[in-house]
User: Fold this.
Amino acid sequence: MYYIENICTDPRYNLALEEYVYSLLSTYKEKFMLLWRNSPSIIVGRFQNTAAEVNEPFVRENNLHVIRRITGGGAVYHDLGNLNYTFAVPNDSDNPFDFQKHSQPIVDVLQSLGVYAEFNSRNDLAINGLKFSGNAQHMDKKRLLHHGTLLFNSDLEKLSLALKVSEDKFQSKAAKSVKSRVTNILQWLPRPMSIEAFKDAILRQMDKKEGFKPYFLSQDDRKNIERLIEEKYSTWSWNWGRSPEFTEKKSRRFNAGKVEACFNIKDGVITGCRFFGDFFGDENLNIFEGHLLHCLYEEKALRKRLASIDTEKYFASIPKEELVSFICG
Assistant:
């Protein structure tokens, strides 16, 4: 496994580096690992409506970066007390979105430090029922990107103020606030340590398991990363990209995440549609949205249009009948 040392804390650079390692270094069949931290920022899931996820006044007052990532899932708050890990590996297409497999090394590291952690729900790691890590993935036929947050000593007060959380998520989690559902790793360690020492413990464990080789970014690598920053991660269209007003909106929280469907209807026909949410999927959602254009906005026509589409490519782990019933309802 290659390890790329990265001390940059600019979230635009770090997300561009991740995407570059995943996609443009995809000629490498080897595995890559990154460990990195961001200055205070909100990192939004690929399919989310940014404006609906962040507390904009708080973002402005605290000069937070708001950056969209290429993986699905929900928005997360990052600061220098949070350590992020990334694996870019060959894709095991027979077992898509296996979060537990790729987050198990973190559980093993914590166990070696005297902390019992467990995989909890679809993509979280928890200590004593409290979440400290959210994980997300993006994949194509060749490569898989798996990354996760590790709340080590984050400012949980700012975390709770930075994000908007819908009431249906509170209800589904049976909790009253974001702050009450999360924890920092530091408070569970038998002996205090710095975040740098924690990072070193992860590296030692992974080196023992995989065997590390350093990968040093070339000048061409760095130019490609800078291009991604300029053309994507610094742009309003990627990070915010607000959708126009829609004539019809509906939302539902499935076991695999929330889906919000927005339609423009003219003379009973769908002239535009967008889907948002904290779900996962491995196909371009624009393609799915395109399938629904110019379809009559009624159940029989919608079911016929969706009959031949493999919806789980776009909405992973949401049964097709449940999704179709939601769209047609």
In short: Residues 169-177 have pLDDT under 50 and may be disordered.
